[in-house]
C-alpha cells in the first residue's frame, strides 16, 4: 500500500498501524490470523514464482525453436536472468528498507519499467523469501508505527494526562 510518514490516528490521538497488502493491520499484534495469512501468502508467492518461471521457460523455448542461433539464445537467457536479479534486489530493498530508500537505478520506475516487467519472477521470489521472515514491508511499517506510538506517549506524558492544551499540568487557560 502507500507509505506514509505517520500512521493514521484514532479518536483519542493514538496512532493506528498502516495496513499492509494481504495482511491488513494483523501484523501489529501477530495473532492467529496473521500466521494463517503469512502461510497463505508464502504458498501463493511460491506458486506464482513457479508459474512465472514456466511462462518464461515457454517464451525462451519459443525463441530457441526459431533457430535464431546460440548467441541469440544466450543473450535472451542472460537478459531474463539479469532482469530477474535486478527486480529481486530492488524488491528486497523495498521490503526491508522502504520505497523512500531507493536511489540510483532502483528508483527509476518509468524508464526501467520493462526491466521490472521482464524480471517479475525475481520480484516474486524476493516476495516469497521475505514472507518466510515477516510480512513483506512489515519491518518498515513497524518502525514507523513504533516511532508514532513513542511520540504519542511522549506527548501524553509531557501533558501529564491533562488535555486542556496548555502543556503544563495544573495551569488553566485564560479566557480572553
From TrEMBL:
<feature type="region of interest" description="Disordered">
    <location>
        <begin position="1"/>
        <end position="20"/>
    </location>
</feature>
<keyword id="KW-1133">Transmembrane helix</keyword>
<protein>
    <recommendedName>
        <fullName>Integral membrane protein</fullName>
    </recommendedName>
</protein>
<feature type="region of interest" description="Disordered">
    <location>
        <begin position="153"/>
        <end position="176"/>
    </location>
</feature>
<keyword id="KW-0472">Membrane</keyword>
<keyword id="KW-0812">Transmembrane</keyword>
<feature type="transmembrane region" description="Helical">
    <location>
        <begin position="39"/>
        <end position="58"/>
    </location>
</feature>
<feature type="transmembrane region" description="Helical">
    <location>
        <begin position="111"/>
        <end position="129"/>
    </location>
</feature>
<feature type="transmembrane region" description="Helical">
    <location>
        <begin position="70"/>
        <end position="90"/>
    </location>
</feature>
Amino acid at each position: 500500500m502507500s507509505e506514509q510518514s505517520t500512521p493514521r490516528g484514532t479518536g483519542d490521538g493514538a496512532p493506528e498501524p498502516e495496513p499492509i497488502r494481504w495482511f491488513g493491520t494483523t501484523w501489529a499484534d501477530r495473532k492467529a490470523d496473521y500466521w494463517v495469512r503469512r502461510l497463505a501468502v508464502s504458498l501463493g508467492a511460491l506458486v506464482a514464482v513457479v508459474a512465472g518461471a514456466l511462462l518464461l521457460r515457454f517464451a525462451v523455448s519459443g525463441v530457441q525453436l526459431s533457430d535464431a542461433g546460440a548467441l541469440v539464445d544466450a543473450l535472451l537467457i542472460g537478459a531474463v536472468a539479469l532482469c530477474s536479479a535486478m527486480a529481486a534486489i530492488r524488491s528486497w530493498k523495498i521490503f526491508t528498507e522502504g520505497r523512500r530508500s531507493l536511489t540510483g537505478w532502483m528508483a527509476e520506475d518509468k524508464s526501467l519499467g520493462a526491466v521490472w516487467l521482464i524480471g517479475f519472477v525475481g520480484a516474486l521470489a524476493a516476495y516469497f523469501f521475505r514472507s518466510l521472515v515477516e510480512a513483506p514491508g512489515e519491518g518498515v511499517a513497524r518502525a514507523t508505527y513504533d516511532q508514532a506510538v513513542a511520540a504519542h506517549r511522549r506527548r501524553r506524558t509531557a501533558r501529564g494526562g491533562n488535555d486542556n492544551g496548555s502543556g503544563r499540568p495544573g495551569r488553566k487557560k485564560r479566557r480572553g
